[in-house]
Amino acid sequence: MGLGARLPWATLACALLVAGPLIGLPLSFVFAPGGLEEFSGFLPEAVTATAWILLGVGGGTLLLGTSLAALVSFFEFPGRRWIEWVLVLPLAMPSYVFTLFALGLDVPGIRSTGGAVCVFTLVLYPYVYLLARAAFLGQSRTLMEAARGLGLSRTRAILRVGIPLARPAILGGVALALMEALADFGTVNLLGVRTFTDAIYRVWFEAFDRDAAMQLATLLMTVTLTLLALERLARGRARHAQLSASGDAIRPVRLRGPAAAAAALVPLALVGVVVIAPLVQLGAWSVESIREGLLPPEFGAAVRNSLLLAGMSAVLVPVVALLLAYGARASRSRTAAAAARTATIGYGLPGSVVAVAVIVPLGWLDHRIDGAFGTGLLLTGTVIGLFYAYLVRFLALAWGAVEASLLRIPRQLDEAARGLGADRLDVLARVHVPLLRSGLATAALLVFVEVMKELPATLLLRPLGGDTLAIAVWQATTESLFETAALPALMIVLVGLLPVALMIRLSGRLGASEVEASPAAAAWVDEAERAVPA
Amino acid sequence: MSHVRVRGLSKSFGAVRAVHELNLDIERGELLAVLGPSGCGKTTLLRTIAGFEQPDAGCVVVSDEVVAGPGRMVPPEKRRVGMVFQDYALFPHLSVEGNVAFGLSTRPREERDGLTRRTLELVGLQHKAKNAVHELSGGERQRVALARALAPEPELVLLDEPFSNLDATLRAGLRREVELILRDAEATALLVTHDQEEALSLADRLAVMRDGHIVQVGPPVEVYGSPATRWAAQFVGEVNVLSGVARGSGVETELGVFDLRAPASGPVHVAVRPEQLELRADGNVNAEVVAREFRGHDVLYRLRHEGGKTLLVQLPSLELHEVGDAVFVRPAPAARTCALVD
Questions:
Q1: CA-CA distances (angstroms) from residue B43 to A13, A366, B36?
Q2: Which of A410, A419, A435 is opposite residue B81, by nearest beta carbon?
Q3: Least CB-CB distance to B89: which of A413, A421, A435?
Q4: Taking every pair of C-alpha atoms in chain B, what is the biggest distance, in angstroms?
Q5: B105: chain A residues, CB-CB within 8 Å
Q6: Is B78 in CB contact (< 8 Å) with chain A?
């Protein structure tokens, strides 16, 4: 049997490994019916709090993200090209780090559902902003011009044509922001908002009730998967909307005077509050903590644990993603493609759900192995459980990056290489690896950063004494030791800036070639030349 | 013995018979074009010769080596068969030079550099050696693809619809250029296409393919002038199929007597090309001009003959007839035709 024939089995095995525990979660309702009765107070509380968060964050990110995207797409003002990218920076700020900053400054009213909504809106609006902006940039100028010709003012044309056309993209962005808010544990726990993730944590750690935790996780998973389905649907529609648009891109209108100043200053102030101020404050607290000996206990071990976990995941997860994507490509079968899709449903699932889902099969397997060989517990309570959870949670992230670069290698390229005397291994080494390198590097970077930031799954599955930077931040903040939390938090944010910088660089490069190639840009130059008196 | 021999080749995909008991010979140094409508199996034929498909039956012999046959399947990289793909399949991560040198990795460095340089000169792209592939125009990409296939000095070069991705204005020039490059390289080449003009103007010999097998092989002049079947006559250029009675070296039809290329007797169908008819506008009348297609250097008339038949007539555009004109249509002097197999 050739490599090509064996790969699909590897793909299927990967898919089962990753999706199996999630599919198994709902079984808890069968094996322990009424498991939640003991915690009857938890459920209504969690449903109410989660619903308020979803409503508030949905509305907040919708308004903030869409209006900022409209501002930079439809208007020209000093510094626009630069501000366009500055507005993405909050992506690097984990919400629990921003919460630490807000708590440290003792912002009034922050310990409430409304406070949590504000925190989430400020750090998650870039999802809506990015997708809405891409949609606006893809719109045809003629549509807006038609609206103007029909008697609409500039602003009304944006409201009645520009934004409605971008609706699928905007809703897709909102769905992503909501999934992030649902997945969060640190912020709601620190602010005392009793959502689903918080309830899972308390049922797990305070009541040690596995079945109830599984059932809560199942409910939360259902909500997340619904949002995921909405996002996919919106993405499909957005593509459709893009295809129907043709012609030159919209031309931004130049703002003057106070309007131009406001257009530049409002976004800068926003990013100042969400990114710059916290960085400065964390820096100051870090210096203080070093000077006064207030660093977290076992700080060196936390740094080492974080780097090790993140580094090893950054190798493991992309490799599995590669195997999965390769198998689907090699077999050309529908089953393998479906398996690859199934394996990526862990995307966007809350870390606490994933942790609860993997612990059960691991625990079962552990007791079998222990029973047979007397080895003690090998899987649960060790890093193996953690890696498993990271794999389930972040496989989709790596798969997306790998798959994108694999798409750049059409089958004909393999055949061209074979025809030139390269055997299968040669093709792999001389064609695939060079073409996949950047995709694999991106996947590794994304996984590295996400594992550094990850809090809930790490908290539930870590081995004894296995604190990470994220846990150190959370631990110190719960005890209001803000100076102690500052240095690990600062490190997490700085590492988080890497992929954002990468994204900005890639988009910048893409943007430049698009500008060169676009007839709109050429027309612009023509017009500018005519405007200058000879 | 021919340089490349294909014998009894068959290949099916499920219930679809793509290639069926196909025979074909290619002589050393010749350029053979396989012409057929889309879906006739010509790309499958190419891919089977290249080694990307395994035949169900039959064999392929390249330079006295059986590369595919019962119990034998030489992998594509060992066949010394170069291929130029329809969309070129250039490696996006390599420069022009890197692409051309790709198939030479096992040669010593000096030989590799020399071959790469010479091949780039052959296709006239030595000044673009260091360029990235995406910086090239469509025509240049095609020449890189050709250079890449030629550099390892293969026994056979396969070209899959090589001009279909180019615009019409470029096509004619590149066709000539590719032909010259292949001749300079003294390469043996098999080109598949569905474009008759391309096949007729480019090839030393032409093979007409239909439903998985070869209908007729021969020099373009012969295939055009003496099509073997009614289908081949209609596929390669425009044609009037007339019925008549053959008597030795001539055939009598409702339009008059035509010379026959090969003697025959009895009732036959013959293929008469539109340029083998001529029109008179004086005296006798036997047809009416129904439509006129002006093509610059010549004009194609569609006539209704008094017998009810529609006829195509092609004439130089020196003197024009109008739609509705009454005309007399008759065989052009020295018009030779042949009897068709149905």
A1: 36, 56, 10
A2: A419
A3: A413
A4: 78
A5: 421-422, 426, 430
A6: yes
User: Which has more confidence, A31 or A283?
Assistant: A283
* Spatial distance between the Cα atoms of A361 and A373, rounded to a whole number of angstroms: 18
Instruction: Please tell me the distance from the alpha carbon of residue A458 to that of residue A350, in angstroms, as a whole number.
Output: 12
Whether B303 and B236 have beta carbons less than 8 Å apart is answered as no
Scan for tokens 């030779």, then name that residue.
Answer: B336
Token duo for residue B4: 């490349």
Query: Distances in Å between the alpha carbon of A274 and those of A66, A121, A264, B35?
Result: 18, 10, 16, 67
What average pLDDT does range B160-173 have in this prediction? 82
Report the alpha-carbon distance of residue A84 to residue A79 in Å, rounded.
9
CB distance from A408 to chain B under 8 Å? yes
Q: Cβ of B78 and A421 within 8 Å?
A: yes
Sequence-ordered list of residues with C-beta below 8 angstroms from that of B26, at least 6 positions apart, any chain: B2, B3, B4, B32, B156, B188, B190
Do residues A492 and A469 lie in contact, with contact meaning Cβ atoms separated by under 8 Å? Answer: yes
Q: How far apart are CA A313 and CA A319, in angstroms?
A: 10
Tell whether ipTM is more than 0.95: no
Indicate yes or no: CB of B89 within 8 angstroms of CB of A415: yes
> Inter-chain contact B152–A420, Cβ cutoff 8 Å?
yes
Inter-chain touch A430–B105, beta carbons under 8 Å: yes
B102/A423 CB distance under 8 A: no
Residue B169: pLDDT above 80?
Answer: no
Contact B304, B324 (CB under 8 A): no
CA distance B83 to chain A (A): 7
Task: Decide if A2 touches B, using CB distance below 8 A.
Answer: no
- Cα A360 vs. chain centroid, distance in angstroms? 26
The share of chain B scoring above pLDDT 70, in percent, equals: 100
Helices and strands, number each (H, E), in chain B: 8, 19
pTM value? Answer: 0.74
Of B51, B85, B92, the CB nearest to A408: B92
Considering only residues A501 and A527, tell me which one the structure prediction assigns the higher pLDDT: A501
Spatial distance between the Cα atoms of A331 and A11, rounded to a whole number of angstroms? 10
Cβ pair A245, A143 in contact under 8 A: yes
**pLDDT-based confidence at residue A530 (cuts at 50, 70, 90):** very low
Query: Which residue from A416, A421, A430 is facing B85, i.e. has the nearest CB?
Result: A416
Using the Cα atoms of residue A158, residue A163, residue A166 and residue A170 in order, give the sign of their dihedral. positive
- Closest-CA residue in chain A for B152? A420
Using alpha carbons, select from A67, A64, A260, A59 the residue that is nearest to residue A162. A67
How many CA atoms does the CB half-sphere of B110 hold within 13 Å? 0
Q: Which of B76, B92, B106 sits opposite A419 (nearest CB)?
A: B76
The sign of the torsion formed by the CA atoms of A68, A71, A77, A80 equals positive
Identify the closest residue of chain B to A438 by CA–CA distance.
B93
> In this complex, do B52 and A421 lie within 8 Å of one another by their Cβ atoms?
no
For B62-98, what is each residue's pLDDT tens digit? 999 999 998 898 888 888 898 898 888 888 888 999 9
A513 Cα to chain B: minimum distance (Å) = 12
CA-nearest of B180, B128, B135, B139 to B162 is: B139
Cα distance between residue B330 and residue B332, in whole Å: 6
Q: For residues A290 and A273, what is the distance between their CA atoms, to the nearest angstrom? A: 25
The tokens describing A443, both together, are: 């996947």
How many angstroms from the chain centroid is the CA of residue B289?
A: 32
Chain A residues whose beta carbon lies within 8 Å of the beta carbon of residue B112:
none
C-alpha–C-alpha distance, residues A311 and A497, integer Å: 17
